[in-house]
Amino acid sequence: MHRSIRLAVLAITMLASGGVAAAGEDVAVQAGAEPRPIALVIHGGAGTMSRAQLRAKDEAGIRAALEQALDAGEAVLRRGGSAVDAVAASVVVLEDSPYFNAGKGAVFNAEGINELDASIMDGDGQRAGAIAGVHRVKNPILLARAVMERSRHVMLVGDGAEAFAREVGGIALVDPSYFRTEQRWKQLEAARRLEQAGGPAAGNAYFGTVGAVALDRQGRIAAATSTGGMTNKRWGRVGDSPVIGAGTWADARCGVSATGWGEFFIRLAVAHDICARLAYGGLSLKVAADEVVMRRVPAAGGDGGVIALDAEGNIAMPFNTDGMYRAALHPDGTRQVSIFRD
Ligand code: ASP
User: Fold this and answer.
1) Do 315 and 309 form a contact (C-beta atoms < 8 A)?
2) CA atoms within 13 Å, Cβ hemisphere of 52
3) Longest dimension (CA), the chain
4) Which of 213, 212, 219 minimizes the C-alpha distance to 312?
5) How many angstroms separate the alpha carbon of residue 219 from the centre of ligand 1?
6) Ligand 1: distance of its center to the CA of 293 in Å?
7) What angle do CA 273, 150, 180 make, to 5 degrees?
8) Separation of 102 CA from ligand 1 center, angstroms?
9) Most buried residue, 80, 133, 268, 275, by most Cβ within 10 Å?
10) Quick check: CB of 240 below 6 Å from ligand 1?
11) Mutate to test the pocket of ligand 1, among 100, 114, 131, 206 (most ligand atoms within 8 A of CB)
12) Does ligand 1 come within 6 angstroms of the Cβ of 115?
């Protein structure tokens, strides 16, 4: 039922019963209307890691941050807010947490600088916004959203993106030192040592890129992804996270946010490929996501995972790495927070 009609039904129902709606209660449920499903899924990155490596203290902090991010998006959806508002709210919480490779706590590039990428897509009308290679934007996802909503463009990079942030206003800019954490600095030093010893320039310890996909009461789907990219990256390297169709995708029936070895996700257009399999092949979300993440990506030599949902609120979270930080709110109200294959 259309939201305005639902509100009218609610008003009549309340007048008849003399009732008063409690703050935060679900409008559609109170009105007695058949509520349309809401769903939300978030990730905090995939990668190679063992339970032994994850210290108990970190695990508790990571789980708490995932819960908090899920709460933020759920609150938006419960009060009838848009999927775009919900994914932005969830991703901001994860960007602000030092545990994840996005916003505060992002990895360092080869010059010892945090260089951030993000994108957002509204499946309702397939509008999208993305930014790459910014150094001062506190919450990159909010700038990506501003690009989508307040510019004629889809993707802005580097100094130009930051100039747009200043011009458009309302986007917090911070000193680059804000993003630094000791743990990420140590990771950069370790990556440099490995490189000097002739090892790979970047390992597959992606853990930390964040993302969210939501389905709102109007049946709209949105997806968002934010990252610092890969430790020790150079030459202005940009991965899949800000590339629409690779790291992020949303359309009328499907949304995806990815994490993993970005070069492979770009080459395989992973996020779009999953949703295209629903549209062209009539596949279920689970089959489509598994086919791409568990078969195509590893067959090409890449690794990582995705979170995905469809217009019925089905959720898929496949990954071909040891783990993926993830959490979901299902249409029946059940929640889950997981790291490994448990
Ligand atoms: N996909 C990201 C990138 O390649 C990294 C990640 O997911 O952690 O930039």
Assistant:
1) yes
2) 0
3) 77
4) 219
5) 29
6) 14
7) 75
8) 10
9) 275
10) yes
11) 206
12) no
Q: Which of 209, 225, 227, 259 is catalytic?
A: 209
Mutate to test the pocket of ligand 1, among 230, 233, 307, 325 (most ligand atoms within 8 A of CB): 230
Q: Determine whether the shortest distance from the Cβ of 139 to ligand 1 is under 6 A.
A: no
- Atom index in ligand 1 nearest the CA of residue 208 equals 8
Per-residue pLDDT of the chain (342 residues; tens, 9 = 90+): 444 444 444 344 334 433 333 334 454 445 556 779 999 999 999 987 778 788 888 899 999 999 999 999 999 999 999 999 999 999 999 999 999 999 999 999 999 999 999 999 999 999 999 999 999 999 999 999 999 999 999 999 999 999 999 999 999 999 999 999 999 999 999 999 988 888 765 555 667 899 999 999 999 999 999 999 999 999 999 999 999 999 999 999 999 999 999 999 999 999 999 999 999 999 999 999 999 999 999 999 999 999 999 999 999 999 999 999 999 999 999 999 999 987
The reply to whether ligand 1 has any atom less than 6 angstroms from the CB of 229 is: yes
Enumerate the H helices of 169-283 as residue ranges.
182-196, 262-267, 270-281
Cβ of residue 230 lying under 6 Å from some atom of ligand 1: yes
Give, in degrees to the nearest 5, the angle at Cα 245 between 263 and 267.
30
Q: 133 in ligand 1 pocket by Cβ < 6 Å?
A: no
Q: Any alpha helices (H) in the chain, and if so which ranges?
A: 3-17, 27-30, 56-78, 83-96, 140-150, 158-168, 182-196, 262-267, 270-281, 285-290, 297-300
Looking at residue 21, the DSSP 8-state letter turns out to be: P
User: What domains can be seen in the chain, in order of their start residue?
Assistant: 37-338 (3.60.20.30)
> Can you tell me the distance from the alpha carbon of 83 to that of 331, in angstroms, rounded to the nearest whole number?
14
